[in-house]
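Re: beginner question about structure tokens

> Can someone show what the tokenized structure looks like for a real chain? I only ever see the sequence side.

Sure, here's an example I had lying around. Input first:
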Amino acid sequence: MKDEGLAEDGFRKIEWAEKRMPVLMEIRKRFKESRCLEGLTIGACLHVTKETAVLVKTLKAGGAEVWLCGSNPLSTQDEVAAALAKEGIHVFAWRGETTDEYYWCINKVLDAKPTITLDDGADLISTIHAKRRELAGGIVGGCEETTTGVLRLRALAREGKLLYPIIAVNEARTKWDFDNVYGTGQSTIDGILRATNVLLAGKKFVVAGYGHCGRGIAMRARGMGAHVIVTEVDPVKALRALMDGFEVMPMSEAAKVGDIFVTATGNKDVIRKEHMEVMKDGAILANAGHFNVEISLPDLESISVSKRKIRENVEEYTLKDGRKLYLLAEGRLVNLVAAEGHPSEVMDMSFSNQALSVKYLKEKGKELPPDVYPVPDEVDYEVARLKLKTLNVRIDELTPEQKKYLESWEVGT
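And the corresponding structure tokens:
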């Protein structure tokens, strides 16, 4: 890690997150009492933030030994890493890792021979499959936190190459519909504003991709007064964006009019040379997808004559004709590099799904053939029920007659 002396600041930030993550704290209490994770060695490749700290401390409270590395070279909060090390977590992460250092950290976690893996982007499991296959026999299962990682793992499963079962935590309803929409929406806008301090009202704000994350970003940008344009390749998602009140057009057209561009697709080369060549002088480029491939950095470099760091997390690229484009956070996750990631309140549900899925894998993982599985319904509903309880919200219950009606086919008009 960067500096053990940062630990006290890390403890304060973790405490702040714990106060805002009551569901996960309730699960921690249960885990501590039951020691239900005793005997597990968990290898985790996650963004090392204060919210992640609440998760790994919960897993440790359940009896697991936890080895943690960062899932992005720029997202680690160094003070949190220092605090976790003092809590007995094996941490290999610091902000500003090189690519070689990043994979060194991953391999240090894998050296612990984990029995369960946790991923955010699937770099840990892809390293196992590419270079550390001997470890797979000792792994009962894993969890994947984000859309990009689930896509990669489903590709492995389709090819028949997946070596152990994975739970797609990303697709739990209490994750996908809240973390991806409200968390990504708010934290992406937060990252853009911290990096630039620009006024969003009146700006033409282009969102590439209208999945859960893109929808959240578009909603929040509109809430700040921006004129939002959506680009899509999926006709159903494009139609949804249109019906939600956004303008929809191809990137080739949006590139000519946009002031701020945010990619959130999980794909590569979403903004390319031909788009950059027609952008306005002063256009701002940001990425909210997991990897730094959505904005083509080689293309941006190839059409530029110079670049300089003009603000923290802002690089100014001067093009051959004198226009300037501004890249935020080196094209990496703007919400984690330029801000603090998702608010603790929404990560409460996501990481509660992670914790309960780990418990499920310990109990059932050996019975599951290698494949990508949904979060069990009982886990999803338990997380939602606990979240409502902590918010002091009560809901209705079905009467016996209503349950019978829903389960019957006889009753008609």
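Each token stands for a local structural state, so reading them left to right follows the chain. The chain has a mean pLDDT of 97.
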